[in-house]
Design a protein that fits this description.
Number of domains: 1
Distance between the termini: 17 Å
Number of helices: 2
Number of strands: 4
Order of helices and strands: EHEEHE
CATH topology: Alpha-Beta Plaits
Largest sheet: 4 strands, antiparallel
CATH superfamily: Lrp/AsnC effector binding domain/regulation of amino acid metabolism (RAM) domain
Strand order of the largest sheet: 2-3-1-4
Radius of gyration: 12 Å
Structural class: alpha+beta
């Protein structure tokens, strides 16, 4: 299992709608946080080993209505 974080920039006034749609329709998104700064949302996603991260982001996240831009962080190791 691999964990990725996707920072999402939304169209003005659309952050809550994007967050709701993401958690309702994209099974591999486990958590969505609103954030301050350059991006509006932070999505925590769990993908199966070997899943194509680029395909997941472009087909499942960037196609959510109201998404303007994304920045993906790939993780290596979780520390408790």
């Amino acid at each position: 299992m691999q964990t990725i974080f996707i920072m999402v920039k939304c169209e003005l006034g659309k952050a809550y709608a994007v967050a709701d749609k993401a958690v309702e329709t994209v099974e591999r998104i486990s958590e969505v946080y609103s954030t301050s700064g350059q991006y509006d949302l932070l999505m925590k996603c769990y993908l199966q080993d070997g899943d194509d991260i680029g395909h997941f982001v472009t087909q499942h996240v960037q196609t959510i209505p109201g998404v303007k831009d994304t920045f993906t962080l790939i993780t290596f190791k979780a520390f408790s």
